[in-house]
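Dear colleagues,

As part of the handover before I leave the project, I'm documenting each prediction I ran so the next person doesn't have to rerun anything. This entry is a single chain, and its sequence is reproduced below.
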Amino acid sequence: MRCKMEKYRFEDHFTINKNSPVPAYQQVTEAVLEAIKTEMLSVDDKLPSINMLSKLNHVSRATVEKSYADLCELGILGAHHGKGFFINSMIPAPEIRVLLLFNQLNSYNRLIYDSLINHLGTHVVIDFDIYHNSAAHLGHILKKRSANYAFYLIIPNFQDDADHGYRLINRLPKSKLILLDKNIRDISGDFGIVYENFAGDIYKALVQLFQQLRKYHTVCLIYEESGYFPEDIVQGFVRFCKSYNVSYRVRYDLTAGNVREGEAYIVVSDDRMMALLKEIHERELVIGKEVGIISYNDNGAKKVMQNGLTTISTDFFKMGKLAAEMIRSGSMTKIENTFNIHLRSSV
C-alpha cells in the first residue's frame, strides 16, 4: 500500500501506447482499474481533467471522455461539478454477460460486432458463437452455454429447419432477447429487435433511384430463394414496378445469356453479383450505360468495384449501436433500422 503522505498523480505514471492494438480509451480505463487494484489510487483520489489527459497523451477529448464515462458507469468514478473526477469506489459494478449468436461470419456482421464492442461499456462481457444457419447447431450452442446470460443477441436465419430454430428462440426469456436484422413473425412476445424493413426499404430506395432507372427499358431483380434474404424483397420490388409502370423481371437464377442490354439489375447476394459481373464482362457491355447494377449491402469493395457499385444497404453499424443502447438501458423495444442508398456510377 502506498504511503498516504505521498501524492499519486495518475498522469505522471500513464502514457497511451499508440502502437497497441488496444483502443486508447480502453488503455485509460484499464490503467485506472490497475492503479486501484494495486492501491495506488484510493477512494476520493482525483484523476486529471479530460483536457489535461488528452493534451498530455495527444489524443482527442472524446477518447478520454469515453473512458471516464465507462468508469462512471462501472461506479468507479464520480463526477463533481466544477471539481472534476474522483475515485468513487474500489469495487467495479457486476459484469453483464451477453451471448451473441451470428448465423454466419461476413463483413456485414463484423460491422455489427465492432459497433457492439464500441458502444458497450467495459462491464459488458460478450460470448460470441456462430451457428452456421443451422437450427440443430443453434440448439447445441444453447445447451452447451448454460451460463445465466443477461441478454441473448441473435441474427435468426436457418437453412435446415427454421421452425425448430424459431422454437429454440421462443424458449429464451423474452426480457433478455434481442433479435438483429430479421423480424420473424413466428417469434412472439415482448422482446427487443433492430430489424430491416425489406419490402419497404427496396420500395423507397427504387423510388429515389427512379430517375436513374428510367434510361433502362426493364428492371430485373436477381433473387436468391434459398438464401438469407426474405420474400418481402420481391414483394416490395413488384409493388414499385407496378406503381411506377416499370417493366420488370424476377429471376431466381443467373445463367449464361440472361443478361440483356438495356436492363438494370438488382442483385441481392454477393455470389450472384460476381456471376453477373462476369457475364457483363464477357459480353463487353458498359456498366452504367448499357446495363445498370444495384447491389444489396454496402462494403469497401463495392465502393471501388467497377468504378463504384450503387448499393441499397441497411446501416449495420447503427444496428449494433441500437442493440447496445437496449442492453445499457435494459429497455426492450422494436426499432426499424435505417437504410441508405449509395448512388455510384453503376446506374
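Confidence is low (pLDDT under 50) at residues 1-5. Residues 24-37 form the longest helix (14 residues).

All the best with the project,
I.
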